[in-house]
Amino acid sequence: MTIPTVSYKKVIEPETRPPVADSSRRWVVIYILLALSLLTTYACWNNIRSWGLMETFETTNDTPPNYKEYAKMARYLVHKAEWVSMGSLSTVAAVKGFPMVNIISVADSARGEKSTGVLYFYLTMLDYTAQDLAKDNRLTVLLSMDQDLYCTKNGIDPMEPTCARIMISGTVVKINETSPEYQFGSSAMFSRHPAAKKWIETDGHNFFLCKLDIVQIAVLDFYGGPHYVTVEDYMAADPDKKAVASNTNGRRVPPRFAEVAGDAH
Questions:
Q1: Which 3 state secondary structure label does DSSP give 87?
Q2: Which of 44, 49, 113, 171 has the fewest CB atoms within 10 Å distance of its CB?
Q3: How many CA atoms within 13 Å lie on the side-chain side of 47?
Q4: pTM for this one?
Q5: How far apart are CA 83 and CA 79, in angstroms?
């Protein structure tokens, strides 16, 4: 019986591998990756800011004036306003002569610029507000401090007198396109409402720039009824100027309440 020959191969020793990199080298790689991640995040953040997407989240020193500073409160709300509730007298046959309300975008200056107190806005005759004002240019606009949810975020109902609101009455004036004021007003609107450029470029809509020539300003920012501010005091107020403590700016009682108080005595 023949026994098969078995050949054996010599076991080859494994090749010697290079030593594993030390921990310091690993940390260098980690630091490099972390730095690249931070640079990428920073670049993306700057792009977002430049696109204006984070504008509403930026921290600003936006503190309302003291409730006794009525003219300043009115200027403050006008400067903050992006839109107003605009009331006119209807020319629609079914409700002719009735009060009619609309939402209209406004601007008193370009975003980030100082307040002017003048409300600029675009109108088109395709909209009923412009049609109403073409017949009777008297107008009242309403602005509320809760337009940006300031009151709601602070637990104040928008109807509470402590959630400031103003009612501004006046007449609407169409601004001449060749005047310097037209350039200012349109630039202010484009700054706050970029969509306005498309409005005026749309064929057949024929938007035109207007402003409100103010006659009366009523401010309700505390209990006790509205306070009436003169146009002179309103235009002289500076909402950007810090308040100065005073004991002489007490709240005056409006005439309709003063008469009742007098009758009581």
A1: strand
A2: 44
A3: 6
A4: 0.69
A5: 11
